[in-house]
Design a protein that fits this description.
mainly alpha; 5 strands; 6% strand; disordered N terminus; DNA binding
Length: 400
């Protein structure tokens, strides 16, 4: 019934004379050329386009005018069939013309059609029909272009997601190939930007929701991110400095329940595999520290990582704590060893060492300056104790 009514409405239009239709066909080339000339005059970015791309736009307009004339000749055919040139064109030009620019091009072409086509009409009835026809055809073209660009955007989004997953997977596996950096650059990542890898549980089983959560928080912090859900874990590569720690806390809110571990911040994406390795090692070991902060740095999980058998954590404990204390003068190693053995009681430590309590205080301050660990703090005391044990075991095996 609706279809029949629509056909009656179309047939109620006055028929265009064969002379007018022939005039329209002859004028199609001039209309297209005039449209391109007007675009060049009004749009600076269009003037800067290569000649072959402007020629593609000219061909597009010519096809559009031909389709318009064909539809006017037979108003019973669906407009969508005559708009196919515009429906398929964005798939070809969307790589070098944005949707906003396409709208500008279509607007200029339609304005020119509205001005010039009615002049070809034989009488007022034909003029009214041409004017209304331009409006209806222009509306269909606009919807076709928007639909095509939306489809192209979805396809690009799916491709970008796959490319991003490949980049993150390469970082996790330790690939430092040039292809990884070029893929990241294709996603808009600055290869020279600092990078920090965070790992934890995804907030949901819906990948688009996960992506939205992470990207929205990163955008509010004005930071680039790469992310991928790998089974039951979410891996995020965060760009930029993380000295203040606030940005890590904001990104950690996008993770699901459970621990979130951040690897060390490295100088560039080419070194991000080190951050990923430490972060994943920390995620496996964080169960040994139930009260760990969220997020927790992998560097703060060195004791648990060493106990879990991570040789890199063992070496860092030796390099950062055991070796400096071993090589330091002033009985620092003996003092911190004794202080930990007596449970952190300053006076008892001083008596066992036969020194004044102030001497113990001075030596412990030196230990803090040297290692970054305060023996008075319970957590730091644990790190110091395990580091010294790991150091002695490594030395016994002849590793240093």
């Amino acid at each position: 019934m609706t279809s029949s009514a629509g056909a009656e409405g179309q047939q109620a239009w006055p028929e265009l004379s064969r002379t007018t239709l022939r005039d329209l066909e002859r004028a199609s080339g001039d209309l297209a050329a005039s449209s391109v000339s007007e675009m060049e005059r009004r749009l600076p970015w269009f003037r800067r386009m290569p000649a072959d791309q402007r020629a593609s736009v000219l061909l597009l307009i010519q096809n559009g005018v031909a389709g318009f004339v064909s539809w006017l000749d037979d108003p019973r055919q669906a407009i969508r069939l005559t708009a196919e040139a515009f429906r398929s064109a964005p798939k070809d030009i969307s790589r070098w013309v944005s949707l906003r620019q396409t709208v500008e091009l279509v607007r200029i072409a339609l304005e020119l059609f509205e001005q010039q086509l009615p002049r070809l009409a034989a009488d007022d009835a034909e003029r009214a029909r041409l004017t209304e026809g331009v409006l209806r055809y222009g509306r269909e073209i606009a919807f076709s272009a928007a639909t095509s660009y939306a489809a192209a955007a979805e396809a690009r989004g799916a491709w970008d997601a796959r490319l991003e997953a490949l980049v993150v997977d390469g970082i996790v596996r330790g690939d430092a190939e040039e292809s990884l950096l070029s893929r990241a650059a294709a996603l808009g990542w600055d290869p020279a930007a600092e990078a920090t890898v965070l790992v934890g549980n995804p907030p949901s089983d819906d990948p688009p929701a996960v992506v939205y959560e992470v990207r929205s928080r990163a955008a509010r912090s004005a930071r680039p991110v790469l992310l991928s859900v790998q089974g039951s874990r979410l891996v995020v590569v965060l760009g930029g400095e993380t000295d203040d720690g606030d940005v890590l806390g904001k990104i950690a809110e996008a993770f699901g329940d459970g621990a979130v571990v951040a690897g060390p911040t490295v100088a560039s994406l080419a070194e991000a595999h080190r951050s990923a390795s430490d972060a994943l090692s920390g995620l496996r070991a964080v169960v040994g520290w139930p009260t760990a902060p969220r997020p927790v740095r992998s560097l703060d999980l060195l004791p648990e990582r060493a106990l879990a058998g991570d040789p890199e954590a063992e070496w860092q404990l030796v390099d950062r704590i055991a070796r400096p204390l071993e090589e330091a003068s002033g009985s620092l190693l003996e003092t911190v060893d004794t202080f930990l053995e007596v449970g952190g009681v300053l006076e008892t430590c001083a008596r066992k060492l036969f020194v004044h309590p102030n001497t113990v205080r001075y030596r412990l301050r030196r230990v803090t300056e040297l290692t970054g660990r305060n023996a008075h703090d319970a957590r730091d005391a644990l790190v110091l104790r395990i580091a010294l044990s790991v150091g002695r075991l490594a030395k016994a095996r002849g590793l240093w």
